[in-house]
Amino acid sequence: MTIKNKIAFFFSLTGLFGNLTLNAQVQQPNVKATVDTSKVVSQEIEVVRSYKPVLADAVKIRRSPDLTDIKSTKPKVAYNLMDKRLELNADIRELQIQKIIQLTPEDLNNNYAKFGLGNLGTTLAQLNLATGNDQALQAGFNFNHLAQKGKLNQQNTSEQNASVYGKSIGDKLVLMGNLSYNRRTNYFYGLDGMQTFANPDPAQQRFNLFEADAEIYKRIAPNDSNKLALSSKINAYHLNNYYDGSENAVTISAGISKNLQKFQGGANAVIDLTTTKDVSYSINNHLFKINPYIKLDGDRFRLTAGINYVNEFGFNQRIHIFPAASIDFVLIPDYLTLFGKVGGDVNKNRLREMVNINPFLNTNPLIKNTVEKLSISGGVRGTVIPNVGFKAMVKSLTVSDFQYFVNNVDNKQKFDVGYDNGNSQILNFTGEINVKFSDAFRMDTKVDFNQYDLKNEQYAWFNPALKFTTNASVKIAKKFTLDGDFYYQGLTRAKVLSKSITTPVTISESVATLPSFVDVSLGLDYAYNKKISAFVKANNLLNNAYQRFLYYPTFGLNLLGGFSYSF
Q: What phi and psi values does residue 18 have, to the nearest 5 degrees?
């Protein structure tokens, strides 16, 4: 039988047995099936196919290699010898000198001009001229002008300032000098909303200030541990107003200090000669001060101890000796420093400082000096993170002859100067935060809180308890810079004097309250290129006609715009 017939017969038998099986499965239950064995075919089938060994069959092949073959082969090798010196490069190779690229120096502009106009008749002009980039000699000229006109009758202000300066830096000495002239004009436009007095034709006031100062000091090398420092300065000015008021002053100061290892000893001395004249008086108010001290510098602290000797002579003859000591202790290097100070001084009340604070002074203002009998202060300063600094300080003052302003009883738009006789207590808290991230963002914030306990006066007239100031600048685009100012002042009180209409005439006192106020300003600068830029600024955005002094509301909303040019 062929292999083909054998396979076909095998599958026929398989089908037969399969049918028998299937038929047996479909029979009824409990019915016994019978098979006729005489008809069953039994035959052996042999399947023949090709042999394919698997891996397990490989063990059946045991053929050992022939180890008697010891025939060797010698390869032919050709050598090409090169005459080359062996380099030892284990040593450091000598650096090759590279030529420095010559940088083109930046074209700096020494001169600057600025012009602007505003909605309140505001005119602004500024001019600054300076010499070139000379490290040994510097000189220049400055001029500034600002004028405004408010909505009230003669609510006009104007100020001009011109100055020339020079500075010479030698090998051993530095010389500096300055000459300036300042002119300010304003009117006594004060007006009472309650119509308690009339002011149809406000009087004019004008101040002229001529000033000169010169300074000389010795240059000191930074690594000079035994340095001897010397300096001296002289300042002189003449001030006059539209009436007969004037003031002449000459101040000469000098200082010397010497380093002795960790110690430093020295002294500062001042001679201050001032003569103030007005319609009914001429007062000589002179001071001589000397402050000898010694300093001790440690690794984490600096201690200063000395005295402040003050001699008043002229219209008042008094001698004062105050302590002068301070300490700085570095608690965390570069992050936190504790400081404290104990001292005292005599503060000369000049006509110049008075009109800078309040330009609406009456004739013949009273001249006295305020004495800080004891001043104790302490606080902390440091940095939170790089470019973010802070300072917090508490100060306690005991003063005599505390100065204040009060409206004149006969001419209420003018102010007299008063003093609180006796010892008064002042508690001050000052906090500052300064943030500067390159030129992209800068912010300075300061809060100033004062608590007054005067000896005789009910309040510290026109002195607010709280002041809060914030100034910020941010670069919002490549050529645009936005800056803003926020100022808050707490309420203040004014003493109002009134005459009786009966005889004899008596003077009564009352208290007027000036509300707190907020002043917000915003400005935008556009830099067209390195030479030309434009600006716009809005002052008093809330349009508050607030009063710093009684009967004198300030300007409301005012806009100012212009351009500047560097050359």
A: -70, -40
> Residue 10's pLDDT is what?
44
d(CA 49, CA 3): 10
Phi, psi angles (nearest 5°) of residue 35 = -125, 135
User: Cα torsion at 313, 319, 322, 324 (round to 10°)?
Assistant: 50
Distance CA 229, CA 256 (A): 6
525 burial level (CB within 10 Å; 0-12, 13-18, 19+): middle
Determine which helix (DSSP H) or strand (DSSP E) holds 538, and give its type and residue range.
strand 532-539
Strands 263-277 and 112-118: unpaired
Instruction: Render the burial of 241-276: b for 16+ CB within 10 Å, e for the rest.
Output: beeebbbebebebbbebebeeeebebebbbbbbbeb
DSSP state at residue 76: P
The position carrying tokens 């001030």 is 239
Extract the residue ranges of the chain whose pLDDT is less than 70. Answer: 1-73, 84-95, 101-106
Token pair belonging to 245: 């008021």
Q: Which of 282, 298, 303 is nearest to 333 (CA)?
A: 298
pLDDT tens per residue across span 423-433: 999 999 999 99
Angle at 438 between CA 432 and CA 443, to 5 degrees: 25
- For the stretch 204-249, pLDDT in tens is 999 999 999 999 999 887 777 778 899 999 999 999 999 999 999 9
pTM to 2 decimal places: 0.78
